[in-house]
Amino acid sequence: YRYMANKILLVTGATSGFGKAIAEKFAAAGWNCIITGRRKEKLEEWCNYLQQTYGTKILPLHFDVQNRAETTAILQQLPADWQQIDVLVNNAGLALGRDSFDAASLDDWDTMIDTNLKGLLYVSKAIIPYMVQNGKGHIINIGSTAGKEVYPNGNVYCASKHAVDAISKAQRIDLLPHRIKVTVIHPGAAETEFSDVRFKGDGSKAKAVYEGYEPLHASDIADITFYCATLPEHVCINDLVVTCTAQANSFFTHKNA
Ligand code: NDP
Ligand code: 8X3
User: Fold this and answer.
1) 144-166 pLDDT tens trace
2) Total number of domains in the chain
3) Where along the sequence do coiled-coil regions lie (predicted)?
4) pTM across the whole model
5) 141 lines ligand 1 (CB under 6 A)
6) Is position 227 annotated as part of the catalytic site?
7) Among 57, 90, 216, 256, whose Cα sits 20 to 30 Å from the Cα of 163?
8) Each residue's pLDDT tens digit, 121-130
9) Has residue 41 been placed in a domain?
């Protein structure tokens, strides 16, 4: 691919999984990257690795997307040479628990809504003015197959990802006059820290999710995100569902016995 200097990516949730791989893919292609996450040490470690390995500029910003005041203050005051953001990837997100609607915890629901939905809104609202100012931009939201179908015990996680789908459609309509592209990528099962987080550190439960088939890798989503981000100016992939070959949808994965 073309080596692209002076392009700027902002990806949220870059301390792990998709976000980490996305930052690496873009840095390897010469992009300068703003990477974010709550875990400061992991963020700084990844920042140093990317800078040393690829020689591009990396700006690590450490905040919790659930915190509206902090998220807004940090993102509204980006250093002048970081304001020409070409691509924003709204990736930070999580599932917590896989419990039936009557048994699930309200705290888990709050956290998922505050992160997957409200966090995405706070970040978008802070970054869109730069894109408007620049006269162009590209927002890539990470949804999920859980944003296309509701599966048993998926309740509020699925709802939060359906909301990401709806918000992506809304952004696409309303931001059209500013030449801002909006893409939503809906991945199926991928082995990241996702299930460790969902099952709150129960490693065997997390591992079982990916047994008997080859799930997506974080690098697959990074490659696809990069492809979407580097199409010609007049081309926009609006909505993309991607699963591993063994998975048909939220309900059906062909597992070896
Ligand atoms: P990981 O758990 O590996 O990564 C999640 C990232 O989000 C971490 O970098 C984490 O950073 C960040 N994050 C979580 N909460 C917050 C917060 N409150 N503030 C800031 N950053 C936060 O999971 P994935 O890479 O798999 O998940 C990335 C996205 O992809 C999520 O939106 C997820 O819902 C979605 N997805 C995942 C799929 C999968 O099967 N893995 C499939 C479909 C969609 P830190 O903890 O340092 O804050
Ligand atoms: C993550 C994939 O199927 O666990 O969004 O919801 S799934």
Assistant:
1) 999 999 999 999 999 999 999 99
2) 1
3) none
4) 0.98
5) no
6) no
7) 216
8) 999 999 999 9
9) yes
